[in-house]
């Protein structure tokens, strides 16, 4: 993969990720707000179920995010760690993995 391919894939990933992040935040926040406002009307079991659902939505979003990054080729070929966020910026600047230092781009 070339540097330009990597940047294009990373930008596409960020674009999709932002939309899903907004949806996940709305779901997570909505569940927590419903727990806060309905807590005095719900018994402990229902309150726990809502809290569990809120944290499950966060867990599944985080898993989805990692899977999408790997599918788009945003993982180091040597150590398999994700090249997103700061590690991705280091990779674009140096051509090497931000975690292990392995060469990422084809010359």
Description of the structure:
- It is a single chain.
- This protein has 107 residues and is mainly alpha-helical.
- The chain has a domain at 3-72.
- The protein is built from three helices and no strands.
- The protein has helices at 3-38, 44-71, 85-94.
- The radius of gyration is 19 Å and the shape is elongated.
- The termini are close together.
- 11% of the residues are buried.
- The model has no long low-confidence stretch (mean pLDDT 87).
Shape: elongated
Q: Which sequence of SSEs, written as H and E, runs from N to C?
A: HHH
* Low-pLDDT sequence parts: none
Work out the radius of gyration: 19 Å
Helix content class: 55-70%
E-strand count: 0
Which class of secondary structure composition applies to the elements? mainly alpha
- Tell me the major beta sheet: none
């Amino acid at each position: 993969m070339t540097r330009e391919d990597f940047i294009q894939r990373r930008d596409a990933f960020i674009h999709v990720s932002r939309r899903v992040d907004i949806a996940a935040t709305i779901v997570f926040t909505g569940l927590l707000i419903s727990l806060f406002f309905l807590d005095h009307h719900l018994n402990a079991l229902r309150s726990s179920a809502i809290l569990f659902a809120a944290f499950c939505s966060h867990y599944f979003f985080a898993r989805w995010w990692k899977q999408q990054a790997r599918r788009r080729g945003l993982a180091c070929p040597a150590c398999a760690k994700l090249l997103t966020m700061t590690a991705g910026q280091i990779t674009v600047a140096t051509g090497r993995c931000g975690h292990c230092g392995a060469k990422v781009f084809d010359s």
